Task: inverse folding
């Protein structure tokens, strides 16, 4: 009997990446504040005790999930951009990347960065800074692509790259918000319209 009790008390073994990916779905759908430990425990298939033992608290778990989300998304985007020869083609690929990201169940789940930006005033300083830096990084990426296009002649050289990048960031973030609702979910038809702002 004693061995059985010990066995029952032993934390369930798990693959950290898999656990983070399951928690990611909860945070994407509900946000940091609305996601309860019960929600996370159910999604991660772990007991509450196991979650606290592995990640200390919900905040630390979210921090690790957020970092993993950025890593996965940035790698996928880099893979797409590497296939493009010019700045405008990279911008087109970026827009298609965001449109693809809002289709079907992925659109309903939402973007962890956009969702966290809405909550940023309720996050502690470290988490808020992580979200802010993710937004700044997105803006820097878009600005760089526009500047690359201006250098290779595929984007109008007279356009203010910073202002155009700010507009493009608003467009892609708007896609993620609109994509949460099936009736307002954007499709690929908006890509050429968005690119016209750079011609």
Result:
């Amino acid at each position: 009997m004693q061995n059985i009790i010990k066995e029952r008390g032993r934390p369930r073994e798990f693959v950290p990446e898999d656990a983070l990916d399951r928690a990611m779905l909860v945070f994407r759908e509900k946000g940091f504040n609305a996601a309860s430990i019960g929600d996370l425990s159910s999604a991660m298939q772990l007991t509450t005790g196991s979650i606290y033992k592995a990640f200390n608290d919900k905040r630390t778990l979210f921090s690790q999930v957020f970092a993993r989300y950025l890593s996965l998304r940035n790698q996928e985007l880099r893979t797409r951009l590497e296939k493009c020869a010019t700045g405008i083609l990279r911008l087109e690929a970026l827009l298609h990347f965001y449109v693809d990201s809002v289709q079907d169940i992925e659109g309903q789940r939402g973007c962890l960065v956009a969702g966290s930006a809405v909550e940023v005033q309720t996050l502690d300083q470290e988490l808020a800074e992580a979200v802010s830096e993710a937004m700044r990084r997105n803006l820097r990426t878009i600005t760089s692509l526009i500047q690359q296009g201006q250098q290779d002649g595929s984007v109008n050289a007279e356009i203010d790259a910073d202002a155009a990048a700010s507009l493009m960031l608003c467009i892609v973030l708007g896609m993620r918000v609109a994509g949460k609702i099936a009736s307002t979910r954007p499709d690929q038809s908006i890509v050429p319209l968005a690119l016209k702002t750079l011609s």
Summary: The chain has eleven helices and no strands. Residues 1-10 have pLDDT under 50 and may be disordered. The CA atoms of residues 88 and 166 lie 16 Å apart. The domain at 84-199 is CATH 1.10.357.10 (Tetracycline Repressor; domain 2).
